[in-house]
Amino acid sequence: MAKIVGLIPCLMLDNNRDANNEAIEHNYKHLNLDAIAIYDQAFQETDYDDRFIYVGHQPDRVGFTNARNGLLKWFYESDYDYAFWLDANEKVSTPTINDTVTIIE
Q1: pLDDT at 1 over 80
Q2: Taking a C-beta distance cutoff of 8 angstroms, is the pair 94, 31 a contact?
């Protein structure tokens, strides 16, 4: 069976921390991916959650391109078959959750 990982480039700032955490939790709960890998930028110790894989460990912002490339490099070296891109602060909408889960399954 194919293994699917969610990839999330995430810049964690004081003004988006709550939105990021809420969206990541929502997507984790509803999508049933095999794993979620997060390219962590500007995270505090309290931002880490042992349910997720962290790639990058950047104390400051490095930009979307570097985060995306870091996640792709990690994915290509992993044993996952497919990657599913997610925004750090966006939830898969309620009307599309069933469709998305059907595609993933």
Answers
A1: no
A2: no
Q: What are phi and psi of 36, to 5 degrees?
A: -130, 125
Task: Record the pTM.
Answer: 0.93
Q: How far is residue 57's CA from residue 103's CA, in Å, rounded to a whole number? A: 31
The DSSP code sequence of 16-68 is: THHHHHHHHHHHHHHH--SEEEEEEES--GGG--TTSEEEEEESS---HHHHH
Residue 93 to residue 73: CA distance in whole angstroms: 28
Residue 102 phi, psi (nearest 5): -60, -45
Which tens digits make up the pLDDT trace of 18-55?
999 999 999 999 999 999 999 999 999 999 999 999 99
pLDDT at 101: 87
Instruction: Report the alpha-carbon distance of residue 48 to residue 56 in Å, rounded.
Output: 13
Q: How many CB atoms lie within 10 A of CB 39?
A: 25
* Token representation of residue 100: 């998305």
